[in-house]
Amino acid sequence: MKLYLNKTSPYARVARVCALEKQLGAKVSLKWVDPWADDAELLAVNPNGKIPVLVTEAGEAISESLLIALYLDGRSAVGSLVPTPDQANVLALAGLGQGLTDAAFTTVISRKHLGPDSDSTVLGQRRHNALSRCLEQLEGLVETDVMQAGINLGQIVTAVALSYMEFRLPEVRWHQQCPRLAEWLAVFAERASMKETSFPAP
Ligand SMILES: N[C@@H](CCC(=O)N[C@@H](CS)C(=O)NCC(=O)O)C(=O)O
What we know:
Low-confidence stretches: none
InterPro entries: Glutathione-S-Trfase_C_sf (IPR036282), Glutathione_S-Trfase_N (IPR004045), GST_Omega/HSP26 (IPR050983), Thioredoxin-like_sf (IPR036249)
Protein name: Glutathione S-transferase
Radius of gyration: 17 Å
Pfam family, one: GST_N_2
Strand order of the largest sheet: 2-1-3-4
Keywords: Transferase
Strand content: 5-15%
Number of strands: 4
GO molecular function, one term: transferase activity
Helix content: 55-70%
Shape: globular
Bound molecules: glutathione
């Protein structure tokens, strides 16, 4: 299998953490690409031009981080990342974490391409409000089974989203607003899969 990725994409990091947690690291070769450079090889496997993309051994190109995660989950016998009977809780948490990533990533990209004023547009305000609401809900979930049980996809997506905010939006002081979540992330970030895929120093 071949994973197209870069070092700063939260979506690509989710795919990579899943591969490592499923002990598939040796079976997934990493193809580093710049998704913003219209790389011909990337466009050949994903006309959408985005990472991550996982090309399977049979040559099927799967895009979208959560779909890649589900595919990888079925590729090894190591404990499922979407375990039953908690499937619904895990998927709900994964959706919440993905929403946080989307709001954070779009904020970063809008600032970069449209300038800092993009924060005060209607869409910028909506992103800001979405970030606050997602963080508040996650803070309320910290003590629940889905956050505390053995590793699952929801935890991975959430941890990567929070870590991405530390990396790209350090001015959002979510650690103070969400102390239990900050503690939870500190423990989760000690996992080998998280350390191996850490974002570069800003
Ligand atoms: N929903 C997608 C989002 C993927 C995405 O937006 N990737 C970014 C990098 S973080 C990208 O490749 N952007 C390039 C572009 O938008 O042209 C997923 O979950 O994989």
